[in-house]
Specification:
Length: about 475
């Protein structure tokens, strides 16, 4: 029972949601079986961990069916009861999701059918007018606004077709227009996803089709729609030969029309903008780090990056890296101080401690780094790897050559023995260790060897700390 589908569902609820679920189960409107209330009360005794021996099926069966034998019954009565409660909990989830404010317009649109069927014309017109003035702020994804408007317009067409032909015709035209906008936005949105994750997912990209889409979008009747323009420029920025003017227009439109989007969608759009900057920095345009940092600051100000009031650990580390790259020591200190309890991670203290160590390294406070990153104290494998790499950087900078060589070998052994590290990550860190070993054995002014190693770094696809390695090589010139 501990690992049953029902228990897994119950574990997903917080205290507030469990209270709501309790009210739902006790409501005779939703549940007329008192046995389900009793089973729910029984299970709640063991929340939130649900790991008691009293959750064994035989024990629960005896508590609820004392007059029956478990073996003879084969636990069928209990299974039936658990199944019914599981369905009730799933129905509660449906009820909660459907009744969220963002879904109210589509639910109300269905109510139009009721008013039409019952001949309640005044009620129908009143609700139809309300839906027509609906604000986009209620929607979950901006594109869906046009789908819902089309949905409501079709219902209006059916209603007015036997009452007012002019209105019916107008509603039908509206439905076609909303469908066109919905289709165009969906196509642009999907193209963004393909371009941004195509390499990772190995999705083939038909460049000719993408260019046709962009050309047709600019010629479209709906070109002045800001959503269409934003997604047009998002696609343009994700192309291999993206133009700087397109990126600047994309940035400006995002800033001007931030209120059009829910947080989730806005977050994704900022990912596209940041990806453009990242590509430019990889091409050697360091100044785009400043643009990237500006985008991060906007995300922080607008609350775009927060999930449940916290920053995802991987992005938290990334923010620190970008700021340190620009030597914004004071900004990093303030960010760490204000976000110590805002890290969304299974090991938030480790993320925070490593970030402190990373700041200390950039400020050349090597003693502080060594104090903060005793990697044996880190439980997360990625954090352990990050600590090992940071230690190697400290030993290289302080010319502790024996410690450097010993820790390079230690890192290789760690990678070989640890099967939980992905092949890609193994290659990245192995290549880093090998490259660092070669740099360590390179004497200053060996221009030919330095050039070969720099080329090797550029040619190595899977490599951790690429920029740092190149920096150290340049210092040897």
């Amino acid at each position: 029972m501990k690992n049953s589908e029902l228990i897994v569902l119950l574990k997903s609820f917080d205290k507030k949601e469990l209270k709501q679920l309790d009210k739902y189960i006790r409501s005779p409107f939703f549940n007329e079986n008192p046995k389900l209330i009793e089973l729910f009360e029984y299970l709640m005794q063991f929340a939130p961990k649900y790991n008691s021996p009293y959750l064994e099926r035989t024990v629960i069966f005896e508590a609820f069916f004392p007059d029956k034998d478990y073996q003879k019954n084969k636990g069928l009565d209990l299974r039936r009861l658990i199944s019914q409660l599981n369905k009730l909990v799933e129905a509660f989830i449906d009820y909660v999701m459907i009744n969220q404010k963002k879904h109210q317009s589509i639910l109300k649109a269905y109510s139009l059918d009721y008013y039409k069927k019952r001949g309640l014309d005044k009620h129908y017109v009143k609700l139809s007018q309300y839906l027509d003035k609906e604000k986009k702020g209620y929607i979950d994804v901006s594109v869906e606004y046009y789908y819902r408007k089309r949905f409501a317009s079709l219902k209006d067409y059916n209603f007015f077709s036997s009452k007012d032909l002019a209105k019916a015709t107008n509603k039908l035209k509206n439905s076609v227009e909303y469908l066109d906008i919905f289709y165009l936005l969906t196509k642009l949105q999907s193209t963004c996803l393909i371009l941004s994750s195509g390499r990772l997912l190995r999705i083939e990209q038909d460049q000719a089709s993408i260019m046709d889409l962009l050309n047709n979008t600019q010629k479209s009747l709906y070109w002045k729609n800001p959503l269409i323009q934003i997604y047009f420029y998002a696609v343009s920025c994700l192309l291999e030969k993206a133009k700087e003017a397109d990126f600047e227009q994309f940035r400006w439109l995002l800033k001007e029309h931030v209120a059009l989007f829910p947080i989730q969608e806005l977050r994704q759009l900022y990912v596209y903008a940041k990806n453009y900057c990242i590509q430019k920095t990889r091409q050697g345009f360091f100044e785009y780090n400043y643009t990237l940092f500006e985008l991060i600051e906007i995300e922080l100000e607008q609350g775009i990056i927060y999930e449940q009031g916290k920053v995802l650990d991987s992005y938290f580390r990334y923010i620190i890296r970008v700021a340190l790259r620009l030597q914004k020591w004071d900004w990093v200190k303030q960010f760490l101080a204000s976000h110590e309890d805002k890290i969304l991670s299974s090991h938030p203290k480790e993320v925070f401690q490593f970030s402190q160590a990373n700041l200390a390294y950039h400020q050349k406070d090597y003693d502080q780094v060594l104090e903060l990153i005793k990697y044996d104290n880190f439980k997360n494998i990625i954090h352990q790897l990050s600590c090992r790499v940071l230690l190697l950087k400290v030993f290289y900078d302080t010319e502790e050559l024996d410690l450097l060589e010993a820790n390079i070998n230690s890192l290789k052994t760690f990678l070989y023995r640890n099967k939980l590290i992905s092949t890609r990550q193994q290659n990245q860190y192995k290549n880093f260790a090998n490259m660092l070993h070669q740099i360590q054995n390179t004497a200053p002014k060996q221009s030919e060897r330095i050039d070969k190693l720099l080329q090797k770094i550029d040619d190595t696809k899977e490599l951790s700390q690429r920029n740092w390695l190149k920096e150290k090589l340049e210092e040897l010139r």
